[in-house]
Amino acid sequence: MIRSLLAATVLVAATATVVAQSDPIETRRNIMKGVGAATRTGTQMAKGEIPFDLAKAQQVLKTYAAAADGFHNHFPPNSKTGGQTTAAPAVWENEADFRARFDAWAKDIQAASSQAKDLDSFRAAFGTVTKSCGACHNTYRIKT
Prior knowledge:
Layout: H1 2-22, H2 24-46, H3 54-68, H4 90-93, H5 95-115, H6 119-140
């Protein structure tokens, strides 16, 4: 029974991975949902709405790092339209700049991860990282 359940779980996870890989728009959405949740937590800590927790702060930055790691590879030419994408045509028109922004974001995240040791240092680092997010969204995301 346990083996069957484990096998079914592995099969579901593998199927979900294949589906996500075959649907880059859905993959992007799922990654950004994680980034959005991390941003909410980071913002709440930075504003003092929830207590600062270094482990949570580092998890926020780890979520960002995972997203930055190759996220720009989830924008193949066949994903310009459909699936309710909010990716702007500028992604494909300025692909080198788009990729460079992700690389810069990844560097900001890495620096933030080493700098964030307490609330004040987290606020400063988090502000830098989220400013990069906003700048990219202003250029490469269709506002809905």
